[in-house]
Design brief:
There is one protein chain. By secondary structure, the protein is mostly beta strands. Helices cover about 0% and strands about 45% of the residues. It contains no helices and 14 strands. Strands 1, 3, 8, 9, 10, 13 and 14 form a seven-stranded antiparallel beta sheet that branches. It has a seven-stranded antiparallel beta sheet with strand order 2-12-4-5-6-7-11, with no helix packed on it. It is globular and about 40 Å long.
């Protein structure tokens, strides 16, 4: 299949309208194939936010580590990060996070469970309100210009189930929608301003 290329310095991303199905209160999985051009700094793979810095969900690559974070307010948030660097520039990786409500997420890279720890926290672990989301940068929040992804992203899928409960072999063919699919973007466009 194809993929979509993102250039960090050109502030490229895919905008996704607000959809409650992408913000489930229970079981939740976000996954994608990524090929970073660079691994420095914080680069968003998928994120949802309401236009502020503190009401969000976000799957990121941060300084070579996989990271998942969420918050309902500036005093209420959680951020988990792999304990070791897992990414190298120019290589394809399948990344996934599974989480049940506000519990600790499980992070996978290429189907392998990663050791992760709570890297930031404050207040409660309440979930955000449903908002616009995006692939390749933060959702509606415009203050995170430095968080744009630099590289290629393919097969982004959000599910309202725990897709993975142990190590697995990532699927290398395009995903098909099933009863658990909340959102699926094949990103076969290569370039442009819309995504399939």
């Amino acid at each position: 299949g194809h993929d979509l290329s993102f250039t960090r310095t050109s502030s490229q991303y895919v905008a996704i309208p607000s959809n409650a199905a992408l913000n489930p209160s229970g079981n939740f999985t976000v996954e994608a194939w990524i090929k970073p051009t660079t691994v420095a700094a914080d680069q968003v793979i998928w994120a949802m936010d309401n236009g502020t810095a503190c009401n969000y969900r976000s799957l990121d690559m941060n300084a070579g580590k996989l990271q998942y974070a969420w918050g309902s307010a500036c005093g209420n948030y959680r951020q988990y990060q792999t304990t070791s660097t897992v990414f190298t520039a120019g290589t394809w990786y399948h990344v996934a996070v599974t989480i049940n409500g506000t519990g600790a997420p499980t992070l996978y890279v290429n189907g392998v469970l990663q050791a992760a720890s709570l890297s930031l926290s404050a207040g409660s672990a309440a979930l955000p309100t449903t908002s616009a989301s995006a692939i390749g940068r933060e959702g509606a929040y415009s203050g995170g210009a430095s968080f744009y992804f630099n590289g290629q992203i393919d097969e982004v899928r959000i599910s309202n189930t725990l897709r993975y409960r142990e190590n697995f072999t990532p699927q290398t063919t395009p995903f098909a929608k099933d009863q658990f699919t909340a959102g699926l973007w094949h990103l076969d466009d290569g370039s442009g301003t819309s995504a399939a």
